[in-house]
Design a protein that fits this description.
With 218 residues, this protein is α+β, with helices and mostly antiparallel strands. Helix 2 packs across helix 3 and helix 4 packs across helix 5. It is 40% helix and 21% strand. It has a single domain, classed as Trna Endonuclease, Chain: A, domain 1 (3-Layer(aba) Sandwich), CATH 3.40.1350. The chain has a 5-stranded mixed sheet with strand order 1-2-3-6-5. A 5-stranded mixed sheet has the order 4-7-8-9-10, with helices on both faces.
Length: 218
């Protein structure tokens, strides 16, 4: 499985849609009413924080070099790790399902001392509030993980990092989201395979173009 700079996943010459793309194609995410400048800033912040988290997990982050605008979010992650004695199993890896023709790159999988009986899928957010679709996203990643790995996991947490150096942690019951996510995936692919471009792509030109290419057999 490969992923290009546009976050398009390819496996054996076939395009695999991502978990987040499926959620948007289904029309469950709509950023059309948000100023594009604000969206661009949020995307930059999210990428910066995720890059810093990856460095921290690899013991390669110099806290003193962090940009002041984003330092608080990273400090919130460090606090979370120390508060919960985080044990990371894996992070930022590509997982996929041939059956679902779906792929994704999760944030990290691991155990925390406050819930140490099992390992969980964790998804980091830096938005003002936890997105309502986080349960679906986590459920999608867990399905893909369980297709690719021997050690199955069944739960997930959303980790909301805040500018002031704090965080909030929310546990999700993925049993109620798993079937919903798979239904979305099947509906999206059925539409695309039938030559229809789902309406959820209308506000994302890149995603619309990708789906248009797929409907034409690309």
């Amino acid at each position: 499985m490969e992923r290009d700079d546009s976050h398009i996943y390819m496996h054996e010459g076939n395009v695999y849609l991502s978990c987040t793309q499926h959620i948007q194609i289904a029309g469950l995410v709509d950023f059309s009413m948000i100023n594009p400048v604000i969206l661009a800033h949020a995307a930059l912040r999210g990428q910066y924080v995720h890059d810093a988290v990856r460095l921290y997990l690899n013991d390669d982050l110099d806290i003193g070099t962090l940009d002041e605008s984003y330092a608080g979010y990273v400090q919130g992650f460090v606090k979370f790790c120390k508060d919960h004695n985080l044990e990371v199993w894996d992070s930022e890896s590509i997982i996929w399902s041939d059956r679902l023709r779906t792929a994704g790159t999760f944030d990290f999988v691991g155990k925390i001392s406050s819930d140490h009986a099992y390992a969980y899928m964790f998804e980091i957010k830096t938005s003002s509030a936890m997105p309502l679709t986080i349960g679906l996203q986590l459920a999608g990643y867990v399905k893909l993980w369980n297709k690719c790995r021997d050690n199955n996991i069944f739960g997930g947490y959303g980790l909301l990092l805040k500018k002031n150096g704090t965080y909030s942690l929310t546990k999700y019951d993925l049993l109620k989201y798993g079937d919903w996510f798979e239904s979305i995936v099947r509906c999206n692919w059925n539409a695309i395979d039938s030559g229809m471009i789902p309406i959820g792509t209308k506000e994302n030109s890149k995603l619309h173009d990708l789906c248009e290419t797929l409907t034409n057999g690309g």
